[in-house]
Write a structure and sequence with these properties.
The complex is a heterodimer of chains A (111) and B (114).
Chain A lengths: L3 E3 L4 E4 L4 E7 L6 E7 L6 E7 L2 E5 L2 E6 L4 E6 L8 E8 L7 E2 L3 E6 L1
Chain B lengths: L3 E4 L2 E4 L5 E7 L5 E7 L6 E7 L5 E2 L10 E5 L2 E6 L8 E8 L6 E3 L3 E5 L1
Parallel strand pairs in B: 2-11
Antiparallel strand pairs in B: 1-3, 3-8, 4-5, 4-9, 5-6, 7-8, 9-10, 9-11
Classes of the chains: A mainly beta (111), B mainly beta (114).
Amino acid sequence: QKEVEQDPGPLSVPEGAIVSLNCTYSNSAFQYFMWYRQYSRKGPELLMYTYSSGNKEDGRFTAQVDKSSKYISLFIRDSQPSDSATYLCAMSETGGFKTIFGAGTRLFVKA
Amino acid sequence: SAVISQKPSRDICQRGTSLTIQCQVDSQVTMMFWYRQQPGQSLTLIATANQGSEATYESGFVIDKFPISRPNLTFSTLTVSNMSPEDSSIYLCSVEGGWTGGYTFGSGTRLTVV
């Protein structure tokens, strides 16, 4: 079993839809949770960074962590074609070192 | 956060040859990281490069295959040696993201070995 599981998709939604992206994990020691967005032929860019359980909102993006279920989510409201990318979840015990990445979910937002 | 310039952006190489990837950061950083991203797989850390010391390699990666240089606090190179088609992948360098957390990545080098 992988430490971090992420559905590879692809996920295709119409413009304006609410998108839900998810990851599950097995290591209960993870405390730092991240979401990265990766456009084609680009490196990943950090989208959201959260510590422990709870929600964090930034514009149209909301990150949610449920440590009891070992489950994290990224919600995108009012999705736009420019949101079309691969989204990687990532997590670590110590905030940086030994970060474990999910394989990524490819998202397509159709105009 | 730091800005990273990575080159080449892509290359097609013959098996048995070597390719050196360069990574330049616009600020001084203590640690630089090299990752591999294979199709459909998660980012895998190859090694951590500290200036002035030998790189630290992760399990499954060895210095003879992936020699790394770190001559100063803003630059690093990763060489993929004696390449085979299995080395075809995207290689990324990164640095810690500072106060924003996480990592900042270069744009990657897409390597195809034929």
